[in-house]
Design goal:
The complex is a heterodimer of chains A (188) and B (200). With 188 residues, chain A is mainly α. Chain A folds into two domains: 87 residues, RNA polymerase sigma factor, region 2, helix turn helix motif (Rna Polymerase Sigma Factor, Chain: A, Orthogonal Bundle), CATH 1.10.1740; 84 residues, Orthogonal Bundle (Arc Repressor Mutant, subunit A). In chain A, 72% of the residues lie in helices and 0% in strands. Chain A is built from nine helices and no strands. The relative contact order of chain A is 0.11. Chain B folds into two domains: 61 residues, no CATH class; 126 residues, no CATH class. Chain B has three helices and ten strands; from the N terminus they run H-H-H-E-E-E-E-E-E-E-E-E-E. In chain B, strands 6-5-8-3-2-1-9-10-4-7 form a ten-stranded mixed beta sheet, with no helix packed on it. The C terminus of chain B is likely disordered. Classes of the chains: A mainly alpha (188), B alpha+beta (200). Chains A and B meet through helix 2, helix 3 and helix 6 of A and helix 1 and helix 2 of B.
């Protein structure tokens, strides 16, 4: 598989950041801030916590940049976004918001593959995600948005794969229920 | 489709994100105000600034340049003065051109008048003066109440006859370029051997 080479600008920017250039760090921050903030909001559900998490994530970025090796175009962005996700998960754990319980009955009754999200728009999803319990939201984000497998999610959060599956089922049920209710209210 | 829409939405402008941008940046990368290097640099810069300001102030209050010597030669006219009762009036008004060297040190300014006369009588009515022999730099204290090694008060300085070449050094600058000298004839065919000098 052919990898995209990293751009000269990105390499130069990283080199300047490693040398401690504050302006280069600001440029790096500005380039990735908005996406990082939105990722944090998607995991945390509010802007206030997202500010803290993104700030902590960028502290880790600046501290860990000397260990980062640019290999492909966009790898820096993916690395930063991974740090933001990890920092979000760390924040949720610290606040004890990631209380995930395994509910096998629900998992057995519900087949995730039957969920068809094509009828809903992104704005509806966004609103439902914000109101979703942190546990559901986290697993849903990791699985449906980021594309992690249940095994990876289990390792990331420190739960079993079965719990991850059940949380995803609950999240989908929550979404369908909320969106269906909204549609019903709008029809009425 | 939803996933793609959410991912794309993440890149859209967000007013809340923009409002928080500055705060997040400050939290993520606060300026290093208290690093040792920065503190040392600031202290050194402040010390240099204080040194420069104090030097400039010292120079200003002295109105002179520090530790430099400038020679400013100005012409001084020696004019015969016949009013001094102790001195016989000169048969002719004598104009003798002498030069004043201004010695500027860090603290005080001297005017030095060199008279190429072997015998002089001086009075110190207006200036604080001292006399020293040429080339020997030996001050010739003329009595009175010297306030330091070779300077004495004008009120108590008597007239004194000094043999040698006169260095007339005043602490204050001349108010004009005129000095008055009374001259008398000691012997025939030896005019102007004893000038009496008073500073103006």
């Amino acid at each position: 598989m052919q990898r995209n080479q990293p751009s000269v600008n990105e390499e130069k920017l990283i080199r300047q950041c490693k040398n401690g250039s504050r302006s280069a760090q600001r440029e790096l921050f500005d380039a990735h801030y908005r996406t990082s903030f939105r990722i944090a909001v998607r995991y945390l559900g509010n802007h206030h916590d997202a500010e803290d998490v993104v700030a902590d994530a960028f502290i880790r970025v600046f501290n860990g940049l000397h260990t980062f090796d640019v290999r492909t175009e966009g790898s820096l962005g993916r690395w930063i976004h991974t740090l933001v996700i990890n920092e979000s998960l760390r924040f949720l754990k610290r606040r004890r918001l990631l209380v995930l319980e395994e509910d096998m009955a629900l998992y057995d009754d519900y087949a995730p593959e039957s969920f068809d999200a094509s009828d809903f728009d992104a704005e509806q999803f966004k609103q439902v995600l914000v109101t979703m319990p942190a546990g559901y939201r986290t697993v849903f984000n990791l699985y449906a948005i980021e594309g992690f497998s249940h095994k990876e999610i289990a390792q990331l959060i420190g739960i079993s794969e079965t719990t991850s599956r059940s949380q995803l089922c609950k999240a989908r049920s929550f979404i369908i229920q909320r969106i269906t209710n909204n549609v019903s209210h709008e029809n009425v | 489709m939803i996933r793609q829409a959410l991912l794309e939405e993440a890149a859209n402008d967000d007013a809340a994100a923009e409002a928080a941008r500055g705060r997040v940046w400050q939290k993520a990368n606060p300026p290093k105000m208290f690093s040792l290097t920065a503190v040392l640099f600031r202290v050194a810069a402040a010390a240099i600034l204080v040194l420069l300001l104090s030097t400039a102030y010292f120079m200003w209050i002295q109105k002179e340049q520090p530790a430099t010597q400038m020679t400013q030669k100005k012409e001084i006219r020696m004019i015969a003065n016949s009013t001094d009762s102790l001195v016989k009036p000169a048969p002719n008004v004598v104009f003798q051109t002498i030069y004043r060297d201004r010695l500027v040190a860090s603290a005080i300014a001297h005017d030095t008048v060199v008279l190429q006369k072997t015998e002089v009588v001086y009075s110190t009515t207006y200036d604080t003066v001292f006399i020293e022999k040429h080339k020997t730099s030996e001050p010739l204290i003329a009595g009175g109440n010297p306030t330091d090694d070779d300077v004495f008060l004008p009120q108590t300085s008597p007239r004194k006859q000094v043999r040698g070449i006169l260095f007339w050094r005043t602490k204050t600058a001349f108010s004009s370029n005129t000095a008055t000298a009374d001259v008398r004839r000691d012997r025939k065919n030896q005019p102007f051997t004893i000038p009496v000098i008073s500073a103006q």
